[in-house]
Amino acid sequence: MTVDTVKKKNVVKALVRAPDPLTSNAISNHLGAAPDITVVPGGPVDVAVVVAERMTVEVTSLLRGIKSALRAPVVLIPSEIDRADLFTAVECNVVAVLPRAAATSDRIERAVLTAASGGGVLPSELLGELLRQVERMQREVLSPHGLHTSGLTPREISVLRLMSEGLDTAEIAVEMCLSERAVKRIIFGMTQRLNLRNRPHAVAYALRSGVI
User: Fold this and answer.
1) Which of 30, 74, 164, 197 is most buried, judged by most C-beta within 10 A?
2) What's the rounded Cα separation, in Å, for the pair 190 and 95?
3) Secondary structure class of 52 (helix, strand, coil)
């Protein structure tokens, strides 16, 4: 395999959506000039860059469409964003928010590369607000119904914690004072609901979610 082939495989494919051609061309031209980013008109992409005045119904619809069709992380560049709209943006796969007034070419490029590598970029005040919203959702919506932001119930989390410690079904049943059939039912229910392939995948999901 040649060096050029390796470099080509590492290039991030970015999609740009902006409300006007001038902005779209300016961002596309800068990103396209970066050695590790290429701008594409559609199809499978690694990152989507969306420029918007604010989180209108149309912008939210666009973000949801990108999430559904492309499943790509989004770098959002709004002129303004209401804190009440932040949680909606995150639900639409927005992992980076750059206020337009501070969105220099270099910052946009760094945000695209960060998003492509699985990271995120949020101004500190927006990150604090997001954490407060998540805490309120957990306290007021999920906890009263025995749920967690990970989508796991407290009982499922307990089973996963014991699984991560190497206990088998019979040992988990003893620890939790349940029958083996009940433990198997809990494991089957969460793997089916969350589309997890097997027990190791379920444990990995719980670790990534930070619940064990």
Assistant:
1) 74
2) 26
3) strand
CA distance 48 to 183: 42
d(CA 199, CA 192): 11
184, exposed or middle or buried, with CB in 10 Å at 0-12, 13-18, 19+?
A: middle
What's the token pair of residue 200? 């190791």
- Per residue of the chain (212 residues), what is the pLDDT tens digit? 444 444 445 899 999 999 999 999 999 999 999 999 999 998 899 999 999 998 898 999 999 899 889 989 999 998 987 766 777 787 788 888 888 888 899 999 999 999 898 888 776 556 555 545 555 555 555 556 555 556 677 788 889 889 888 888 999 999 999 999 999 999 998 888 888 888 888 888 877 766 67
The CA distance from 158 to 171, in Å, is: 13
Integer Cα distance of 104 and 178 in angstroms: 58
The residue type found at 29 is N
